[in-house]
């Protein structure tokens, strides 16, 4: 493997942004593939119901459901991920994330195709500007893996694939709004894009003075750990922007040694590593699984960030975990994890300018033992006197202590 340091990347001759942009946008500019090449792994994915069942030794009874679901949202599973799925086990938590079931074709009330109403916050194709000081760029339409619960499974990615000219418009937009401090590369999966294009984009972002941080939301380092290659570390290491990479994983079994090694490489490039996951029925809706996930993440140098409450996206109802169950799980989790390994349970609520934390309704305050005037008069309250005794139930926390007060919408 050729080792390219950030310094050697700077030696690539270039004349202007325009010419670098054209190079970045031509796929012919990519080098030929090497062993362990992530692009070969991205190309040679399992993409049919038959192939997935055969690879995992599953019975043919799963085929009709898999075919129906596949029609709605194509199967896509890289071998590196399939190798972490237990063979012949229809309940495997990784398998559940990628195998379509009959249930996907159910059309249910309250289940929608754009639960986040993101289409309303796209000032330019490929740009979602919903929160004041941070924007989300759809840096790529595709993903390495197709997750059955994806809330963007119905998103019209093809309409949001910026062309080169559109990228220039996006950069102009970012330059013009000094409130924006952070750019989040999202998708799809932004790391599906070629390194040359990402290097060009990140270098262009670095030239906008008011930008402080670059954040990348990606599942690729988990799905195909070889994606964390020298080229990626090169452009990531070269930017002046502070770097945060938010991986997406839902179960400790996804985090094998190859993923751990990829995380170590990212860390050594000065990247802060966080994880976001989704709470999913039959995958990670238990205290044991969430505890093991948080512990394993920390072993890999990653802190839990968000645990997304389930969104009622059509085709994914079989993963539904109610808000009440999710809140109960979080409460139980507190006893098993140090505070810094607790993910924040959140939901994206259309119209709000941030994620909305979910929490249980306020609980009654434990009874406070108040000083008494004297042991011979135990019923007399030193502060208020005997006449001020309050009726039962008055000892509640004021509701302002639960500012988030999320109302279950599902
Ligand atoms: C989630 C999200 C962000 C990032 O939110 P953080 O709370 O900063 O992680 C930004 N923009 C949009 C549209 C989002 O959905
Ligand atoms: S990687 Fe993320 S965006 Fe892509 S299918 Fe999975 S959940 Fe959706």
Automatic annotation (TrEMBL):
Residue ranges annotated for the Radical SAM core domain, each copy included: 129-352
InterPro entries named among the record's database cross-references: Aldolase_TIM, EpmB, Lys_aminomutase/Glu_NH3_mut, rSAM, rSAM_sf
Gene3D superfamilies in alphabetical order: Aldolase class I
Cofactor requirement: pyridoxal 5'-phosphate; [4Fe-4S] cluster
Keywords attached to this entry: 4Fe-4S, Iron, Iron-sulfur, Isomerase, Metal-binding, Pyridoxal phosphate, S-adenosyl-L-methionine
Ranges of biased composition (kind: Low complexity): 22-33, 370-392
Keyword Transmembrane: no
SUPFAM superfamilies membership: Radical SAM enzymes
Domain of life: Bacteria
Biased amino acid composition, Pro residues: 359-369
UniProt keyword annotation of S-adenosyl-L-methionine present: yes
Reactions performed catalytically: L-lysine = D-beta-lysine
Chain residue ranges for the region called Disordered: 1-33, 351-410
Recorded family membership: Belongs to the radical SAM superfamily. KamA family.
Matching NCBIfam families: EFP_modif_epmB, KamA family radical SAM protein
UniProt protein name: L-lysine 2,3-aminomutase
């Amino acid at each position: 493997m050729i080792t390219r340091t950030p310094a050697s990347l700077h030696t690539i001759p270039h004349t202007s942004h325009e010419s670098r942009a054209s190079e970045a946008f031509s796929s012919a500019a990519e080098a030929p593939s090497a062993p362990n090449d992530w692009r070969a792994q991205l190309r040679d994915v399992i993409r049919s119901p038959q192939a997935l069942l055969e690879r995992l030794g599953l019975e043919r009874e799963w085929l009709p459901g898999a075919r129906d679901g596949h029609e709605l949202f194509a199967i896509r599973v890289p071998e590196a991920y399939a190798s972490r799925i237990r063979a012949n086990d229809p309940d495997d938590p990784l398998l559940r994330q990628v195998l379509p079931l009959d249930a996907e074709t159910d059309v249910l009330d309250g289940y929608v195709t754009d639960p986040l109403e993101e289409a309303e916050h796209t000032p330019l194709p490929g740009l979602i500007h919903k929160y004041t000081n941070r924007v989300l760029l759809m840096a790529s339409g595709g993903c390495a893996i197709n997750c059955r619960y994806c809330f963007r499974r119905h998103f019209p990615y093809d309409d949001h694939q910026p062309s080169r000219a559109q990228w220039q418009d996006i950069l102009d937009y970012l330059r013009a709004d000094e409130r924006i401090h952070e750019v989040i590369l999202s998708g799809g999966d932004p790391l599906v894009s070629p390194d040359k294009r990402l290097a060009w984009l990140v270098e262009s972002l670095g030239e906008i003075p008011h930008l402080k941080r670059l954040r990348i939301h990606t599942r690729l380092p988990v799905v195909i750990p070889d994606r964390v290659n020298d080229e990626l570390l090169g452009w990531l290491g070269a930017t002046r922007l502070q770097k945060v990479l938010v991986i997406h994983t839902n179960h400790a079994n996804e985090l094998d040694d190859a993923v751990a090694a990829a995380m170590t490489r990212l860390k050594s490039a000065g990247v802060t590593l966080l994880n976001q996951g989704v709470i999913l029925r039959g995958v990670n809706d238990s205290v044991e699984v969430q505890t093991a996930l948080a512990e394993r993440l920390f072993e890999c140098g990653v802190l839990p960030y968000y645990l997304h409450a389930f969104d009622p996206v059509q085709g994914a109802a079989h993963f539904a975990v109610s808000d009440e169950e999710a809140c109960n799980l979080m409460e139980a989790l507190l006893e098993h994890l140090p505070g810094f390994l607790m993910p924040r349970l959140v939901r994206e609520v259309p119209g709000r300018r941030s994620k909305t934390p979910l929490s249980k309704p306020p609980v009654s305050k434990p009874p406070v033992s108040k000083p008494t005037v004297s042991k011979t008069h135990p019923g007399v309250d030193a502060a208020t006197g005997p006449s001020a005794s309050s009726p039962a139930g008055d000892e509640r926390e004021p509701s302002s202590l639960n500012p988030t007060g999320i109302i279950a919408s599902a």
